[in-house]
């Protein structure tokens, strides 16, 4: 119990000391969502028709793919999410995170904002239903995972940079181990999100397919 309280105190101090970085990452995500929402609202009629036709065909193709090659789809989705975890880790240790990470977070927000806004605006209640079944489940893990990964990468970059520029000694091995261990945990969260996307989302979509299409 004492160790748990100590760990909780350390985490609270860590987040409190780096609250500005966390707020920056969250703001990047919100900017992406707003930009995606604005982009969805500026589509022409022809563009909307093309996207709706693509969406209808996409749902049918995904169902057929899951019947024929679900294991292949699982490998692709899992690999994509694990690559994001690796990208966040590399962005931190190479100190390019200050450029790459905001872009990744904004892009993730843009995709979600655009998709959700388009579905709800063009399909109304059907769009809400599709968004809840196809977007929400995996993003309950993906969004916190991306934000936390970006936050930890940024913190590591700034701590590493501060240590290199100052004359104070710092334990690089300890910093790298803690950072890598934390990113491994986040990568596990992204892995679970991939499993949800492959094995839980498609059955949900099939349940509402008759209503949507």
Could you characterize the architecture of this molecule?
The protein is mainly alpha-helical. It has one domain (2-212). 92% of the residues lie in helices and 0% in strands. Helix 3 (45-93) runs parallel beside helix 5 (136-165), helix 4 runs antiparallel to helix 5 and helix 4 crosses helix 7 (201-212).
Brief summary of the model shown:
The protein is mostly helical and 213 residues long. It has 7 helices and no strands.
Number of domains: 1
Q: What does the overall shape look like? A: elongated
Question: Given the structure, what is the number of helices?
Answer: 7
Low-confidence stretches: none
Biggest β-sheet description: none
Helix content: over 70%
Mean pLDDT metric? 84
Oligomer: single chain
* Helix-strand makeup class: mainly alpha
- In percent terms, what proportion of residues is strand? under 5%
Q: Give the topology string: H per helix, E per strand.
A: HHHHHHH
Output the radius of gyration.
20 Å
| Termini gap | 53 Å
């Amino acid at each position: 119990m004492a160790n748990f309280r100590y760990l909780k105190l350390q985490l609270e101090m860590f987040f409190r000391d780096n609250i500005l970085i966390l707020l920056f990452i969250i703001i990047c995500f919100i900017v992406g969502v707003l930009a995606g929402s604005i982009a969805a609202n500026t589509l022409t009629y022809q563009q909307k028709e093309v996207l709706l036709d693509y969406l209808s065909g996409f749902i049918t193709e995904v169902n057929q793919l899951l019947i024929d090659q679900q294991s292949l789809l699982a490998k692709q989705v899992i690999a994509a999410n694990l690559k994001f975890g690796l990208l966040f880790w590399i962005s931190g240790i190479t100190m390019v995170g200050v450029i790459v990470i905001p872009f990744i977070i904004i892009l993730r927000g843009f995709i979600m904002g655009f998709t959700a806004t388009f579905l709800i605006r063009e399909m109304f209640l059907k769009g809400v239903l599709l968004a809840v079944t196809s977007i929400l489940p995996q993003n309950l893990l993906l969004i916190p995972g991306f934000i936390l990964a970006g936050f930890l990468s940024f913190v590591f970059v700034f701590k590493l940079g501060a240590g290199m520029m100052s004359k104070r000694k710092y334990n690089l091995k300890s910093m790298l181990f803690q950072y890598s261990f934390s990113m491994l945990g986040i990568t596990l969260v992204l892995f679970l999100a991939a499993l949800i996307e492959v094995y839980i989302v498609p059955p949900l979509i099939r349940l509402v397919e008759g209503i949507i299409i």
